[in-house]
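Lab notebook page, bench 4
Experiment: in silico fold of construct C2
Operator: M.H.
Input chain length: 475 residues
Purpose: comparison with the prior construct
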Amino acid sequence: MEEEILNSNPIKPSSKKKKELGLDSQGIQKTMRLHHYLGDGAGQVALNSINGLIGMLTYFYTDKVGIAAATVGTIMLVTRIIDAITDLVMGKVVDATKSKYGKARPWMLWTSIPTFLAIILLFTVPSDASSTTKTIYALVTVTFATAIMYTAIAIPYGSLMAMRTRSSEERGKMGITRSVFGYIIGMIIAIILIPVTNMLGGDQSAWIKVAVILGILSSLSLYFTFLASKEQNHEETQNLKEESVSFLESIKLLFKNKYWVIMLFAQLFINMMYVLSGSTGVYYTKYILGNENLVGVMGAVGLIPVFLGFALVGPMIKKFGLTKTARIGLVLGIIASLIRCFMPYSFMAALILGGIATFATIPMMAVGGVLVNNTVEYGEWQSGKRLVGMVNSANSFGVKIGSGLAAAMIGWILAFGNYDGALASQPDSAITSILVLTVYTPLALFIITYLLLRKYDLDEKYPQIVKELAERNNK
């Protein structure tokens, strides 16, 4: 029976090493070893460095450079819309890329140095310039960092998961490893950015110095990902139909893929959560708790549920499957966020219940990319077209719109509450705005994401779909 499954597999072992890896629990050939997972996960450092710094830009612009909150909100939304559009373009670029390294892998090498420059440019706003000049500079540099560099990394990086292996088990491990790397750098930024920049003087130059360090780290991480990657699945399963599909036809096919549509919106809302969580803590600690450096304390304590989450998510996936694991996490987030709504001014509630909410995001963070890439096989089974680049880019389109809306919401809601970064204390309306961003909105996002994932039942169908695809390819 095992021999029959192996012979029908879309990824046939072509070497002794590959045979030694064996089959996963669903009978699909494994292709990855430990160093492959570690090298692949390193790429998330660059993505989360950019994301984390973009998330802190609202505070940097309002309190360090003097750009109005409403203007910052508009900048964030405009750049995210541009970013979402370039995602779609990048998807076709990845599918059309031809090099000796494959379609997605070479982009990890090509983007390593420009990423370093993009991160530094974010913080070199001419502080003595007019408000118009500052706004234009911010718009251009944020667009360069997000719509060009982030996109040129994220779409190929996401596509690597589908091109590397068809094993849902290996993709799950890739998702966990990527999440660990990404969360570590994200938490480092959240915990030390404010205290370290304050230690270095708290001015613009302090932020630039930190950006240089993160830029170097990001550049090296992309190079390591390039070295450790190999498009094994691309080499053995890529068919010519993928390149013959027009852009408009690709979009139509994606929206006929019900699981891709579910993940489009699920990723949109959960990324709104990530942006709000990573960008508003400093406002909460500074104006609700009275000490902005507490954001570092809360971030440090928040590492406990993070480590616990990453320790448990693997066993949870093995026991419950990918989607159920994500849903369990979301239920915990709903409960914790609901209780916190009744004690929004409590530091202990923020620490404990916020920690549970953080734990609740780990499963979705770990499996989200896997659930997206598994829709590649469903779409191929459904239409006969394998759209790896477009699945990742068009889904990223929704993610970017969600992130942009969240970033814009921060500026707009603060402005609606008459927030003024030049004031030592804020009016009651601004305090309410901060609570809306940090306490009440996360509850709504948890609920919406959970309801969407209730409709995702691809896990049970996936092994049979892969088997049928293998039979088609072997005819």
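Observations: Residues 1-18, 233-243 have pLDDT under 50 and may be disordered. The chain has 21 helices and no strands.
Next step: discuss at group meeting.
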